[in-house]
Write a structure and sequence with these properties.
Blueprint: E1 9-12, E2 17-21, E3 87-93, H1 101-108, E4 115-119, H2 125-129, E5 136-142, E6 152-157, E7 162-165, E8 177-184, E9 189-196, H3 203-217, E10 222-229
Parallel strand pairs: 3-4, 9-10
Antiparallel strand pairs: 1-2, 2-3, 4-6, 5-6, 7-8, 8-9
């Protein structure tokens, strides 16, 4: 999909941080099959249907809607994005964001990254919007409509200039869950896409929808970063690829 543009060099360091730096070449490859987890999943199944009631989830934990107090300790924010400053993007398969915000941010301390992409946040829209991240805004998200678990979101460092891209019409629970934003740099714009496909998701449908999304988002002046968890084992030769 990428034409002329800069090369995105991926250097993975601790906590799965991906530093995107600028050079004078193009790179069409994106490693989509890497998945990480910082804690165990909840004890309910991905196949659990959402209830018609107003309950946010079927978990026995009592969910708090209170906004946690901001930390008094000073955090080192990433430098303002300019041509000489790399855009730092972080992806984590969080396997439920509930109660893990402080744990996640403490892993990133003392340097907070530009973009946080999270797959399997397991939340509905209202709950996700009430989840507070110090120094970050919710840039884009998808929350499952029919089933529990899954879903994706992107949090953006609050000083950055970005546009949310509406891709919800392409989403389908388990098969293709996606959200995206566009970041405006001094001399360039970058589209950041976070995706998730469940192990039971249909692989052919996933590829078809991904192709449609990339074609619709493509412009010659826009560069792309695609990250997420698509549950594909390339060491196994099967139609499902799950």
């Amino acid at each position: 999909m990428l034409q002329e543009g800069y090369k995105l060099k991926e250097n993975y360091v601790s906590n799965n941080i991906c530093e995107q730096s600028v050079s004078g070449a193009s790179d069409n490859s994106k490693h989509l099959d890497e998945t990480y987890s910082i804690t165990n999943a909840n004890d309910f199944s991905e196949n659990t249907l959402l209830s018609d009631s107003s309950n946010i989830s079927t978990t026995n934990q009592k969910l708090s809607t209170e906004v946690p107090p901001k930390s008094k300790s000073k955090t080192k924010l990433p430098p303002q994005l300019k041509d000489s400053v790399p855009l730092i993007v972080y992806h984590q398969n969080i396997r439920s964001l509930r109660g893990k915000v402080n744990e996640l941010l403490s892993q990133l301390y003392p340097t907070f990254l530009h973009i946080l992409c999270l797959s399997e946040h397991h939340m509905k829209h209202v709950e996700l919007q009430r989840t507070h991240f110090d120094n970050y805004k919710l840039g884009g998200s998808y929350c499952r409509m029919m089933y529990e678990m899954g879903s994706v979101c992107i949090h953006v460092q609050e000083s950055l200039n970005y546009v949310r891209l509406d891709l919800e019409k392409y989403c389908q629970d388990k098969n293709f869950e996606v959200c995206a934003i566009k970041i405006h740099l001094d001399m360039k714009s970058v589209c950041i896409i976070a995706i998730y496909r469940a192990p039971s998701g249909k692989f052919d449908l996933f590829l078809s929808k991904l192709d449609v999304v990339l074609r619709n988002l493509y412009t010659a002046t826009l560069d792309y970063i695609v990250c997420g968890d698509i549950n594909i084992d390339y060491l196994i030769d099967s139609d499902g690829k799950g």
